[in-house]
């Protein structure tokens, strides 16, 4: 049977990135391409899917005659799945297939795969950069100089930052990103405390210690960095009480998910001086509203949720996804399947 793959691309997972990965994994496989202008235009939520971008009708038209959709951000909704009975597999080049209606895909017998860990290196490196910036106030000083200032008083003891070496760094979440951050900080000389009730590592790098409660990490850390996945139970995991329990002059960094932090409490702690500095790549509302109070805080560094954005991350996601497509079309099981209950039936049908 001759298969055809739709390369449903955007401006990060570009047509070329997807095509190159597919050609490497399945040379000569026919494909066609559709693309959006994401990230120029932000994500939307559709019925049953989140953080998606693209027109459902346009996607439906492009999928006719294709049995695989190789995508990143397009909405794989009930509407799309119902209109494409020939679709056998959807591969999403993201850490989780949030833009796929998994229940609908399962009902329609469509296998869904995704690409966990695709941007772990990029996010970990971005996090460490944010920590270093917050600790030494690099962007803050840069902004002052650009305004025509020469902040000599920034050398005062009460204004200078801290060194990572010798500091206690708390890491909440020890997955693909958090474990990398922990290793890097330990290599820089920090004493690293990790809290993650689900992680059970057999070995830990020198300088990394697991603790059994979030409270122990929060109350001990000069630097606190978050790497937990968002779920129904951890909204405002770092709330006003947790921030108050952090050591005076501590640094808070969040390059995970905006819901983990009470940003109103952060503003208060920055204004009072209880927090020396903070750095955030994600927020509870994105894009960040123009009137968000945290925009007025001088001692905070912010980036627009691009911690995982690197060329290697895009290429790695495409390679992981293409390998899963090759496995599935070859009669096997994709390594990263979101609905494995569909696999046995789908394998029999091929």
TrEMBL record:
Domain D-isomer specific 2-hydroxyacid dehydrogenase catalytic: 54-339
Keywords: Amino-acid biosynthesis, NAD, Oxidoreductase
Domain D-isomer specific 2-hydroxyacid dehydrogenase NAD-binding residue range list: 128-307
SUPFAM superfamilies documented for this protein: Formate/glycerate dehydrogenase catalytic domain-like, NAD(P)-binding Rossmann-fold domains
Listed Gene3D superfamilies: NAD(P)-binding Rossmann-like Domain (3.40.50.720)
Similarity comment: family membership: Belongs to the D-isomer specific 2-hydroxyacid dehydrogenase family.
Name listed for the protein in its UniProt record: 2-hydroxyacid dehydrogenase
Organism: Schaalia naturae
């Amino acid at each position: 049977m001759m298969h055809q793959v739709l390369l449903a691309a955007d401006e990060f997972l570009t047509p070329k990135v997807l095509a190159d990965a597919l050609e490497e994994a399945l040379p000569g496989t026919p494909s066609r391409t559709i693309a959006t202008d994401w990230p120029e235009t932000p994500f939307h939520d559709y019925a049953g899917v989140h953080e998606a971008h693209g027109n459902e009708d346009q996607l439906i038209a492009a999928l006719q005659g294709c049995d695989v959709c190789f995508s990143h951000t397009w909405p794989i909704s009930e509407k799309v799945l119902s209109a494409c009975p020939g679709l056998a597999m959807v591969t999403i080049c993201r850490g989780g297939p949030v833009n796929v209606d998994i229940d609908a895909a399962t009902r329609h017998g469509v296998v869904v795969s995704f690409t966990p860990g695709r941007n772990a290196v990029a996010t970990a490196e971005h996090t460490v950069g944010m920590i270093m910036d917050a600790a030494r106030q690099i962007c803050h000083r840069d902004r002052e100089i650009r305004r025509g200032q020469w902040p000599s008083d920034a050398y005062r003891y009460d204004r200078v930052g801290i060194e990572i070496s010798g500091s206690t760094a708390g890491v909440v979440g020890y997955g693909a990103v958090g474990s990398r951050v922990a290793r890097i900080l330990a290599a820089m000389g920090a004493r690293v405390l990790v809290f993650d009730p689900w992680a059970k590592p057999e070995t830990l790098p020198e300088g990394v210690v697991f603790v059994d409660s979030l409270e122990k990490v929060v109350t001990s850390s000069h630097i606190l960095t978050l790497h937990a996945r968002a779920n129904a139970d951890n909204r405002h995991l770092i709330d006003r009480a947790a921030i108050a329990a952090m050591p005076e002059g501590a640094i808070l960094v969040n390059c995970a998910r905006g819901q983990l932090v009470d940003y109103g409490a952060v503003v208060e702690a920055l204004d009072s001086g209880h927090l020396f500095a903070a750095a955030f790549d994600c927020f509870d509302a994105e894009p960040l509203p123009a009137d968000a109070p945290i925009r007025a805080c001088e001692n905070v560094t912010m980036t627009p949720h691009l911690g995982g954005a690197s060329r290697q991350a895009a290429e790695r996601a495409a390679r992981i996804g293409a390998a899963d497509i090759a496995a599935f079309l070859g009669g096997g099981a994709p390594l990263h399947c979101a609905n494995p209950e569909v696999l046995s039936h789908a394998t029999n049908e091929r």
